[in-house]
Amino acid sequence: MYIVIVGEEGGRAGELQLALHDFGLDWTVCWLTDTGDAMTLPSDRRIDVVVSDMQVGAMAGSELLEQVRTLHPEAARILLLERSQGTDATRVLDVAHRFLRKPLDASELIEAVESVQELRDLLTNPTLVQTIGRIGSLPPPPKLYMELERLMQDPDVGAGEIAELISQDPAVVAKVLRLCNSAYFSSGRAITDMRTAVTRLGTRILQRLVLTSEAFGSGAVSNVEREAMQDRALRTSRLAGQLLSGPSGELAATAALLAEVGKLLPGVNRGGPDDAGPHYAEAGAYLLGLWGLPMPIVEAVAYHHRPGAVRMSGFWVPGAVHVACALVGGLPLDEEYLRSVFQIERVPEWRDKAEKLAAV
């Protein structure tokens, strides 16, 4: 495996080499201090992983990874963040597969790279690929959600422009207004126009509502089951978003919203003991990968039913989505996993949150 690390972390080369030796990993690591060197790598050399600082000389790390995506699309892209840069992660989800903390920790890098490889193995599983390949028509990508995401990148965009975009889809408008006037969000005054609805709900909640409307808009399920899945997805999303803070909470909320999307596909294991075919979680993750959603969301969907399989230390998005799905759906928690990440004591607190959400 060929790893390129760009930035100021070269002083940790010895620590990484020692860790690679201890883990028995035969990796070649190339340390670069400026983006010019990175871009002169031979085009015929396969690069498995690129690790970059948020800023490398005059170039932003996200810009570097964007170029890497074009020149070396096979490479896993990892961005290093200072503790104060957590909010910046949400702006570069489309170019980075993983985020790691600075200073670079050898064991965390190894876990991240191994996790990327495992996910790639999962998403290229021959049985899964064949199952998806036999489906005549896959659910289409969430076009309105992606347009909304692009629109919201502009700090000058206001509620009126967002409302105008949402109003292009009458089905989404109906769902937005229904949610906006529900007991959970209502402040006692009925809302009948999209601009006021955008202001009341907030852009992040609005995004999730649009996403669930589009993601569950079609598929191999009845209308009744689809409505139940949408409702469960929204409740799961709210809970998952409360289990983590900052950008991680936003990731968890979106991933939880899509945890069951694989159930829309025919020929998948929907979680029953006698079901055949690939599990709906892996199938859903594969679908999200085809849609081009950020890799952290794809990974969380793939592993929400078995969070212990994620090669990542600590309790992060897959764990939060697992907990939310279990508590909202009445499924068993993976207590062994929660003990391993030192979160088992929080289960009563989480159950209380889930009960309060269910009562609304």
TrEMBL record:
What the entry lists under PANTHER family is as follows: HDOD DOMAIN-CONTAINING PROTEIN (PTHR33525:SF6), PTHR33525
- The reply on keyword Transferase is no
The protein's organism comes out as Cognatilysobacter xinjiangensis
Question: Mind telling me which InterPro entries this protein's record contains?
Answer: CheY-like_superfamily, HDOD, RNase_Y/CdgJ, Sig_transdc_resp-reg_put, Sig_transdc_resp-reg_receiver
Residue limits of the Response regulatory domain? 2-117
Q: What is this protein called?
A: HD-like signal output (HDOD) domain, no enzymatic activity
**Pfam families named in the record:** HDOD, Response_reg
Q: Which residues form the HDOD domain?
A: 138-307
* Presence of keyword Cytoplasm: no
Q: Which UniProt keywords apply?
A: Phosphoprotein
Which positions carry 4-aspartylphosphate? Answer: D53
